[in-house]
Amino acid sequence: MAYFRQWKGLGKNCNIRKYKYKNAVIYKARKTLGLPRHAPYDKILVSAAGDTLPEELLNQLRGGGVMVIPINNSIQKIKRVAQGKYKIKTLCGFAFVPLIKP
């Protein structure tokens, strides 16, 4: 997901074509986090830090799915073990750019 048109173009025109990825797609972000219309996902990787764990992304995980996301100065690995139940492992001591909510 790219929040800025220039980033979407850079990823699509430079990186995806340069490395000949056939299974990669970049979408411009809309008003929700993630891409719920294509959910559920086996894995979600977030590369910008939020203050809290976004419910919108948790809801997009498949049963048994894993999300890795920076929250403040830590990285959290979340595994969906059942409907509404998650196993969370936290690793501290990191710094990330902030997550922008659309």
Molecular structure report:
This protein has two helices and four strands. The chain is an alpha+beta fold and 102 residues long. It has two domains: 1-30, no CATH class; 37-97, no CATH class. It has a four-stranded mixed sheet, with no helix packed on it. Strand 3 (74-82) and strand 4 form a beta hairpin. The longest helix has 14 residues, at 5-18. The radius of gyration is 14 Å and the shape is globular. It starts with a helix and ends in a 10-residue tail after the last strand. The model has no long low-confidence stretch (mean pLDDT 83).
Helices and strands, with pairings:
Layout: H1 5-18, E1 41-45, H2 55-58, E2 61-71, E3 74-82, E4 85-92
Parallel strand pairs: 1-2
Antiparallel strand pairs: 2-3, 3-4
Mean of residue pLDDT values: 83
**Spatial order of the strands in the main sheet?**
1-2-3-4
Distance between the termini: 11 Å
Beta strands, count:
4
Helix content: 10-25%
Q: What percent of residues are in strands?
A: 25-35%
Contiguous uncertain segments of 5+ residues = none
The number of helical elements comes to 2
Tell me the overall shape: globular
Provide the domain count: 2
Computed CA radius of gyration, to the nearest angstrom:
14 Å
Q: H/E element string?
A: HEHEEE
Largest sheet: 4 strands, mixed
| Content-based structural category | alpha+beta
Can you tag this structure with a few keywords?
102 residues, 18% helix, alpha+beta
